[in-house]
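Example record

Each entry pairs one chain with its bound ligand, pyruvic acid.
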Amino acid sequence: MDTAQRARLGLNALSPSRVETLAIQKRRAMRQLRSKSSLLEKYIFMAQMRTTQTHLFYKIVIEELEELAPVIYTPTVGTACLEYSNMYPFLAAPGVSDGLYLTYPNSAAAPTTSDLVSMIKQYQPFPNEIYQPEIAVISDGSRILGLGDLGVNGIGIPIGKLQLYVAGAGIDPRKTLPIILDLGTNNDKFLEDEFYLGLRQRRPDEQQFYESVEKVIQSIHQVYPDILIQFEDWSSEHAFGLLEKYQKKMLCFNDDIQGTGAVILSGVINAIRRVQKESGVEPQGHRVVFYGAGSAAIGVARQIQEYFQIEHGLTEEQARQLFWIVDSKGLVTVDRGDKLAQHKTYYARNDNQGQQYKSLLDIVEYVKPTVLIGLSSIPGAFTEQVLRRLAALNEQPIVFPLSNPATQAECTFEQAMQATEHRVIFASGTAFPAFTEPLTQKRHIPGQGNNMYIFPGLGLGAVLAKPTYISDGMIYAAAKALADSLSQDEIQQGWLYPTLTRIRQVSAIVATAVCHEAITENLAQSAHLLAVPKDDILPYVVKHMWAPHSLDALASSSSRI
Ligand SMILES: NC(=O)C1=CN([C@@H]2O[C@H](COP(=O)(O)OP(=O)(O)OC[C@H]3O[C@@H](n4cnc5c(N)ncnc54)[C@H](OP(=O)(O)O)[C@@H]3O)[C@@H](O)[C@H]2O)C=CC1
Ligand SMILES: CC(=O)C(=O)O
Ligand SMILES: [Mg+2]
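Structure tokens for the complex follow.
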């Protein structure tokens, strides 16, 4: 707002007279941000900015994403969720809500569909704007990163994911809807904590759970019929149950199963290409051990399996045999003697000849893997011994400790580099610092295998194509597009993922692949997209990406959007 506008609206006495560009506002904000000594303080500073100065917030996040991703996303969002009830009153400006809280008591006070519809309509984050969200991220807080059941505190995750949609894929912030479904928590610490802000009840039984979620989804669709729903950080059993129930019935996906599957497939494709080129290992010669057998691990295994079948001509059975899955009881085998959760049975081994393997070192010795993927939330599980053994077995061991946040990672980049004489091919869920070889001073930059490279582009593609549902083919197309999005320079440096500074470009490529696939499968329903010539889809996607005011535009420090 310039001086004349302020005077006209009778606002000129409410702030100092100077009118600033966004560029100078950004310089001031960066100086403040960098003066904060802890990541959590930075998170709080940014959270306040998001709800008061949305343009400035996104200008900073987009232009300084490498610096800001660890603040607004993993690892700090993990700490923020742990602390959410302690910080909540200080996070947003008074009267501004940071997300939609759907509270669902497990009693006679349970909301009806009409109650839920009213609650959903209450959330109007931009009071002077028509609010018509296109993407909702919903969690019930039951498995927040690798930190367990955090109940209502899990709201930080939908908020963080949607910020990346805006920054990474140019989704208009006015079209985003973060939702926490508060069904209670089984976290005793929270239930006893006087500051915990969620429902003080235990989680419902299975029947109640599925009935409640069904009612919530129906209510969301009553208010916003075409919205894309991203399921995020639900406990694994429910993540699979909900995906199976809804995948083909509505526009939705599960980020932990499908987004993670796609992003890690993409990194694995580039790792396999590199190891083939540099060490001569044929793709079919890989053996993959998953440490962890939850939604993320099984999602990744399914995607990699599909890759071997599609790209390398393996039969389903041949491809399945490339995987060994480990859970808290050891290697998953058909004869282990316990009842396996449904999602584990497909990968249970039957070639162990009665032998049961418990420790990871024994499993590495038995399988002799070329790839070790951690999705267990067990910090330090990839011990020096395990890593050394992998390095003895492989010229270039592929090691992906993917659990989040960094405190839960199975090993650090430094540990993996040191134990493998710097030969490891590495990606982690949360970014680790670069490693410099002491003798040669050669600097290695680790990969970040995080679904943030997939879900923004996948969501953007889905919003533009409006498919009846998100198919497996679209997820696979997204993974392939990401794998092929690396520049020559990035490939030469041995990277598995593109630099984060290119995330908008990469998301546009991923979204384009999703649109193409939706059209090919006859699922796209957007008349606009269907009228675009095939070769013009990428520019069409780019044209639809939102960006904050341009650098030189005058912007009032009090205007949110
Ligand atoms: N990098 C990324 O983009 C992503 C990372 N993740 C991360 O993946 C992790 C797992 O997520 P998710 O699969 O949904 O969660 P779950 O909690 O469902 O899965 C954890 C798995 O680890 C197993 N496990 C636990 N303890 C051990 C142990 N001592 N030894 C071996 N296995 C063990 C569990 O076994 P059991 O089944 O017996 O309980 C379970 O199968 C989280 O840290 C999450 O943050 C998730 C999504 C994306
Ligand atoms: C990255 C992510 O989705 C997770 O850790 O759950
Ligand atoms: Mg997640």
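Residues 457 and 549 are 22 Å apart (CA to CA).
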